[in-house]
Structure formats: structure tokens, C-alpha cells
Design brief:
292 residues, Rossmann fold, Tumour Suppressor Smad4, 2 domains, six-stranded antiparallel beta sheet, 17 strands, 19% helix
Length: 292
């Protein structure tokens, strides 16, 4: 049968024995399918595995699928390095929740075979970009952009503008701006809404606001968001809990959707609501019934 993918890159940002074991198993599966296996230089795999490595630029030009081995954190790293440049991503879940990584290790052989033969689902997820107004530095996030005090139990004060229109001035520990993808990540821990991946939106969730009237706000994904740091305290900016920048008083941060997107590959059996039931404990204590 025709193979849909032929040159497969394998990446992980985790360093542990289980990652190495699963990677060797994956390499064996792919080579038995007569596929080319490419290992990026930036991968964390032990050198004892004796895997030939290639520069990340080579991977982007030559691979047609990247398999991320680890948890959602590893896939977020894969998205920044490779997915944002057009390389489709498939996740093997060695983490806990794993909303972005679909394949369990005990399903590896069958799932990889199915995907390689073209039996899979795919969807595109938006990326957010954030920059300090007046600075040329720009960073991207798949899950969320967070502006926070950087210190426990300290409030910052900021003004929020949407498409140039003033919305409110607020004191809070910070603000989480998440994509639909990120609604099941950090935002969820702050009681933010779960947003289906097909909903094209950005959620703005205040962190411990100094107000009884503060609620999450959901806006269109094409909204241009601007925050200005006011008051007396400086703040921090983080993206996917990875890139961190310091914000000074009167700094303005602009957040918007990028022109790039990330393409995620899923097994045909993938279902968002099934993942919610399994990973978030929906329907606990109830019989396993299906409605039509």
C-alpha cells in the first residue's frame, strides 16, 4: 500500500530511559516499513543510542512528519521548533494528561502503521505571538501567553485594549491569554472554560483578580490584544511556560494570532470529548453509555 509519509523525524526534549526505549522501538518500526528516520540535533536522546543526527534546518527541508516523544511539553517544544515552520506533528504520550499527544506506548506499532498508510485525522491550531511594543523581539506560543507579577501573592495593575478599544483596568496576579488548544492547559487550572479546538477563539482569564465581578472573556482569534502595565509593580511575560521576558512600568505588550499554524496529526480513533472523559474524569461513577 502507498505510504503517506516517507521521511520521519523523531524529537524529544525529555531526558530519561523511557524516552530512549520508546525511541528505539519507534526507529525499528519505521525502518521495518522502509522509511527514512531523521533525528534532529536539538533532540535530547542519549548519544548511546548511536542515532545519526541532522541539523534542524535539514529536518525542516526534508522530513514530512515529526513524531514527538514525551508529554505535551515536548510537543509544545516541537511546535515552536518545527510545527510553526510547516512540519506536521504526531505525539506519543509518555506524560500524564497528554491532550496534544495521542498515542500510548502500547498502541505504538498499530497506530504508527495506520498513520503512515494515511489513515489519520489532522487539524490546524493557531499560534499566538507576543512582543513588547517598540521591541523587535517576538515569541510564539501554542497554548498560552501569560502576563503575571512573577511573585507569589502580589498584584499587578494593567489596562486591556481589544482592537484598539479600551476594555478595562484591573488589578490581579496576572492574565492568561490562551488559544483553544491551551484551554485544557494552564487556563483550565484557573477554572477557565474548555474550548473545543474547532472554535476559533482566544480566552482571556484573569488570575486571582482583585474584583468580585471579573470573569473570563472569549474573543475572536483575529483580535489584536494590547496590555499596558500601569500602577507600581513591574511584571513578567511568559509563553507556554518557556520564554520569559521582564516588563517595566508603562510597557505595552501586543498579542495576536500569527500567520503560521501548527498541523497536528491524530489516529483515526482520536476524539476530543473521549480525551476529556479519560483525562479529566468526566462521567466518573456512571455507566459507559453512548448517545446517538
Amino acid at each position: 500500500m502507498k505510504k503517506y509519509f516517507k521521511r520521519i523525524a523523531i524529537f524529544s526534549s525529555k531526558r530519561d530511559k523511557r524516552v530512549n526505549q520508546i525511541t528505539l522501538q519507534l526507529v525499528e518500526i519505521l525502518k521495518n516499513l522502509n522509511l527514512d528516520v531523521l533525528i534532529p540535533d536539538s533532540s535530547s536522546f542519549s548519544k548511546k543510542l548511536h542515532l545519526k543526527r541532522y541539523k534542524d534546518e535539514y529536518i525542516l527541508k526534508n522530513a514530512d512528519l515529526l513524531v514527538s516523544v514525551g508529554g505535551d511539553g515536548t510537543l509544545l517544544s516541537s511546535a515552536r521548533k518545527f510545527g510553526s515552520n510547516g512540519l506536521p506533528l504526531l505525539g506519543i504520550n509518555l506524560g500524564n494528561l497528554g491532550f496534544l499527544t495521542d498515542i500510548a506506548p502500547d498502541e505504538l506499532t498499530n497506530s504508527i502503521n495506520e498513520v503512515i498508510l494515511g489513515r489519520f485525522k489532522e487539524d490546524e491550531r493557531i499560534l499566538l505571538k507576543a512582543s513588547i511594543v517598540g521591541s523587535s523581539e517576538e515569541n510564539i506560543a501554542l497554548n498560552e501567553v501569560v502576563i503575571h507579577s512573577g511573585t507569589v501573592a502580589q498584584l499587578i495593575e494593567y489596562e486591556l485594549f481589544l482592537n484598539g478599544e479600551f476594555v478595562f483596568r484591573q488589578k490581579a496576579d496576572g492574565l492568561i491569554l490562551s488559544t483553544s488548544t491551551g484551554s485544557t492547559a494552564y487556563s483550565l487550572s484557573g477554572n477557565g472554560p474548555i474550548v473545543h479546538p474547532e472554535v476559533k477563539a482566544i480566552t482571556l482569564l484573569p488570575m486571582f483578580p482583585h474584583s468580585l465581578n471579573a470573569t473570563p472573556l472569549i474573543v475572536d482569534e483575529n483580535t489584536i490584544i494590547k496590555m499596558k502595565i500601569v500602577g507600581k509593580r513591574k511584571a513578567k511575560l511568559s509563553l507556554d511556560s518557556h520564554n520569559f521576558m521582564s516588563l517595566n512600568l508603562d510597557d505595552e505588550v501586543q498579542i495576536s494570532k500569527t500567520s503560521q499554524s501548527v498541523k497536528l496529526i491524530h489516529p483515526e480513533t482520536h476524539n476530543f470529548f473521549s480525551a476529556c472523559r479519560t483525562k479529566l474524569g468526566w462521567s466518573l461513577g456512571l455507566s459507559n453509555t453512548k448517545e446517538t
